[in-house]
Amino acid sequence: MRHSCVRLRRGAVAAAAVGALVVPVAGGTAPAAPLAGVTAAAAPSPAPSGDEVRDLTPQVKQRIDQAVRRVMQQANVPGVSVGVWTPDKGEYVKSFGVADKDTGRRMSPDLFMRIGSETKTFTVTALLELVDEERIGLDDTIDEYVDGVPNGDRITLRQLAGMRSGLFNYSMDEDFFKALTSDPRRPFAPQQLLDYSFKHPVLFQPGAEFNYSNTNLILLGMVVERISGQTLADYVQEHIIEPAGLDDTSFPTGSEFPQPHAQGYTNQTATGAVEDTADWNPSWGWAAGAMISTLEDMRIWARTVATGRLPDGGRMISPATQKERLTTPPTPIPGAGYGLGIFDVQGWIGHNGSLPGYESLTVYLPSAQATLVVLLNTDISYKNAEPSTLFGDAITKIISPDHVFDLPSQPAAR
Fold it and tell me: Structural domain tally of the chain?
């Protein structure tokens, strides 16, 4: 699931994680993003069978309990909250483990959590709103809005949102990794992040391949700011968070973190030792991964982003533009397609998130109108797999055996 993460340089992105924000992973090996030239067709989503999700009976809930505890033990996860919601098969909301290893404070569903690359779904939604307003076009080239982008006269906004630009991922840069891990509380400006990317040659020509890159989202965030005249945080707050009723979701500009929140644990550090990251500054993730939310807000957002509809039935994105978002061409990850800032993994639509100390998974199964959200307080991989992916796989094998969220890990690569 590392594809959708914000993985750091030494913890590169691996399998197509639904929603992770690939950040430079400090101290240890982690899966890497697909190499240029890798091609594989995504398996088509299974056709609706009429019984997409099992009834959440006491027996099924007990099986979920057991599966979650098994993954926690295998992957050494301190704490996790899980939510499954359906319109007619019941719901399941439960927390396991601890939010703070030092005090033993228990994990609970109401805690604020950093959501990493789930931020990408908000940034791309902002972009699509501007498309609906005819203030920008998906096939505009990025050089119309941002100067100095390699191949900028040929890279379109659509290719940036679809991870097909060919631009190097700044969070894979060794100098960036050193700068962040030497002082993880320092602020980063968007242009600084681009500078880490642009010193590298392009990986491939625009549109030729799929390669998950946080650089793409930094550029899209800058486009939203230029066209809207607002900061990205203010635009997302006014035009997305408030209309969707996401009362506990925020776009921090620094290290602020509402209470109560879980502490986060990572080995993406200068020494590779595990550290608590709750007070780290996520500005280095910005439009690709800085946001904060809760289990309940992510439940609301899962359906909103997958359907383009607000909770009250109104439209956030027009049907035509939403169709563009949900066109998910194959990726090198078997069974996974990627559209405009969103994955389709065996029918589950959404994204995952990962940045030092935290991971998330927020997906929606349209054929059953079912939602799955997983929030946890570590990003330390287990056998080159994101722990959020392990939870997603284990839970969906129980609740939707015809639609298993089974993102495989890619081999580690540079």
Answer: 1
